[in-house]
Amino acid sequence: MLNVQVKNQNMQTLADYRRGLMKKPELRNLFLELTLRCNERCTHCGSSCGDVPSEELEVSDYDRLLREVKEDLGTGHKMLCITGGEPLLRREFFEITDIAHRLGFSWGMTSNGTLITKDVARDQKRVGMRTISVSIDGLEETHDRFRRTPGGYSKAMQGIENLLEVGGWGAVQITTVVTHENISQLDELYRIFDKMDIDSWRVINIEPIGRAKAHPELLLTPEDYRYMFEFIRNKRIGGEPVCYGCSHYLGTEYEREVRDWYFLCTAGLYTASIMCNGDITACLDIERRPEFIQGNIKRDRFSKVWKEGFQIFRRDLSDEAEMCRDCKEAEFCHGGAYHSFNFDEHRPEVCFKGMLF
User: Of 348, 340, 342, which Cα lies nearest the Cα of 318?
Assistant: First the structure.
């Protein structure tokens, strides 16, 4: 465990750096939501994806967008994150990603893995995919129930094996959403994944957003959270490539212990997203409210919106949360992550004060 004083110094340096980013943001991650259609209907889905109608951009829209981004902001130190829905359901998936590849962008994707045959994996390599994260949310019965997809677990695991057989990727990652139902399965999942040649296992908690709001019984208890973070920390101490996601400030004890970086919500600072209808926003997990839409690529040049818009994201949420005003950790937490902030009640939905610190 790192020295507490060193951690506090590092987090203060990061807080100062964040203030500079709010004035001069740096685009590093651009998410492209190709569709809201999905062949699964996951209980936790923040975007409520599934068999839903979805207004989708034309290939020409993506071609124009990416050429503008390259011309105005360059391709260096940027990652295109292809997502959905299930992005592989987009008929023009390989046409769009090939454009990104030929323009010199690095790109990766998130997927439920069920559609990744060996031919698909070879085509993903052909168009330059560097990284991929595939979701496995528990042992077979739990995964299939959580994702409301009979056979989903076996198809996803086969998809991962197909990726590993093709090989040559920057990283193949498995992501697991931990719930009150599947937290007892972490050790068994670890034994399964440890036998696979994946690069990392990302363990994240279910968030009280999207469909998960209708399933409070799946949210983690304080005891669950402590168990999860201890599980991750102990695996990392042993040198295993297990990590927590970017969400949430964890307090001095756990910051830098369960992931390779300190908490920083990068929405609007490093991160922007293009919704499938062309709307421009920050993180796709943030509640889809009109005030968070900064423009639309059909009528606005992205770089202009990035430089002149996004002001609603370039502030401290702690300034509008009563519960944060006397908290000594607010300097490091800033009110938490945008995607889990309750903008009607002006408070974070997830706060670990009193639980972890």
Answer: 348
